[in-house]
Specification:
The chain is about 20% helix and about 20% strand. It has 11 helices and 20 strands. The strands form 4 sheets. Strands 1-14-13-12-15-10-11 form a 7-stranded mixed beta sheet, with helices on one face.
């Protein structure tokens, strides 16, 4: 186990539109959405109906398979509508917020045992913030992981600055660590380059690790692979720093408060910066969406296309606005000089201007083609795995080879850069998710 990681592989994508370190506005939404689709592995059961009154922190859904896992409202108000999709799949519970917020009393008490810590998470609706690895599904209350991992920074394109977003929540974060430490040892990773300036180096009751390197050095999965690799039969849990602060806030105050600073980023944003709001806030209330702009909840590599009429997700603290790329480029890759195109290789001259940021859009500049085996995947994957062989094993549905080549250690986000650098334009993350789904079906 290493406390200092210096990762050499990876790639930082130089895209324009980083969030300015300022709060643009605070939003008190009229309608808030609770979306069961945010939680992998959840089979939702409604606990409310249209017209019911709810408080912030009172349950609106439960997991059918484990009824003790509750999902609570981020606001007080009335259930406006239940949104369903095909085959009556539950898509969202829309809640009309009250002008004055009321909170369900959850009890301000530091848990003394693992059972009390789990009860606090289940009661508050924050159990869904715990992600199990392998597979990236919601953790199970009956399990005990070998460790719980937290990354205090993100290296994803245009990611929110956690020092700015959560630097003033140190007391809540510490309370969250103390609660989770009753369940399993907690590991927190800090960016090496800003270690001395970061408030998170003061955290206690956890093993601190310093990490340096390009993206995906900030991914908790990459950190786990170097600190405590996951073997077959082992479990670890992960939780974001954002939700760790929310857990600690419940411990300190007895109230659920999911308020967060959301980074508005990207070349399509009319103004970048941070907006204070809640998960489930309508995108249009967070930022204006110009015509022909795609709104991505999260970063450009792993985010979800929310659409202008969508709602901020439970795990999201970033919106990336990208121009839709419709135009075809004359001569395309055959152009001898493309100064406004970034390349991860030396195909173009972007390597001569390493500090330049690019006005990127959603254009793929071509479609999928024959799967060409190159070294580019290994160059951007700082993990002790063979990504090309793992991807092929997932495509073939070969469980034995998936296990051999590292399926227990990865989630799609850990190989997101492979999507970006792949000359064959394959959807690598979709292939990895296909393999994980097969493992859940056959092995879990």
């Amino acid at each position: 186990m290493s406390n200092n990681l210096d990762l050499k592989k990876g790639l930082d994508i130089p895209i324009k539109g980083v969030a300015a370190p300022e709060v643009i506005k605070s939003v008190s939404p009229d309608i808030v959405a609770v979306k069961p689709t945010d939680f992998a592995g959840l089979v939702p059961r409604l606990l409310v109906k249209e017209g019911d009154a709810v408080k912030a922190g009172s349950p609106v859904m439960a997991d059918k398979q484990r009824p003790e896992i509750l999902f609570t409202s981020p606001v007080s108000g009335k259930v406006e509508s239940i949104v369903r999709g095909q085959k009556r799949k539950l898509l969202a519970v829309l809640i009309k917020a009250d002008a004055k917020q009321e909170y369900a009393e959850l009890g301000a008490k530091a848990p003394a045992t693992a059972a009390e810590a789990k009860e606090l998470l289940l009661k508050s609706g924050l159990w869904g913030a715990l992600i199990q690895r392998p597979y990236g599904i919601m953790a199970k209350p009956e399990d005990t992981p070998k460790a719980i991992f937290v990354s205090s920074f993100s290296t994803a394109p245009l990611a929110a600055n956690t020092d700015f977003v959560l630097g003033d929540a140190l007391q809540d974060i510490q309370a969250g660590i103390d609660a989770l430490a009753k369940i399993a040892p907690v590991h927190v990773s800090i960016r090496k380059e800003t270690q001395s300036a970061s408030p998170f180096h003061k955290l206690e009751n956890a093993t601190l690790h310093t990490v340096s390197g390009k993206h995906p050095a900030g991914n908790v999965g990459v950190q786990i692979s170097h600190i405590a690799p996951i073997q077959k039969g082992e479990l670890v849990w992960t939780v974001s720093l954002l939700h760790l602060a929310a857990i600690g806030h419940v411990v300190n105050t007895g109230k659920l408060d999911l308020t967060r600073k959301v980074a508005v980023t990207g070349p399509g944003a009319t103004r970048t910066g941070y907006v204070v709001c809640l998960p489930g806030t309508p995108v249009k209330e967070i930022t204006p969406v110009p015509a022909d702009i795609r709104v991505v909840g999260g970063d450009v590599l792993t985010g979800e296309n929310l659409g202008a009429d969508g709602y901020l997700g439970f795990f999201q603290n970033q919106l990336t606005l990208l121009p839709e790329g419709h135009e075809r480029e004359w001569f395309g890759w055959a152009k001898p000089f493309r100064p406004n195109v970034h390349s991860s290789s030396w195909c173009y001259f972007s390597w001569l201007t390493p500090k330049k940021q690019y006005d990127m859009d959603t254009n793929l500049h071509g479609g999928p083609r024959a799967f060409v085996e190159t070294k580019c995947f290994e160059d951007v994957t700082p993990m002790d795995i063979f990504p090309i062989y793992l991807i092929k094993a997932c495509l073939a549905g070969d469980i034995e080879k998936m296990e051999k080549f590292g399926i227990y250690e990865v989630l799609p986000e850990d190989l997101a850069l492979c999507d970006y650098v792949d000359p064959s334009k394959n959807e690598i993350q979709a292939y990895i998710q296909k393999g994980i789904d097969l493992m859940i079906k056959e092995m879990a």
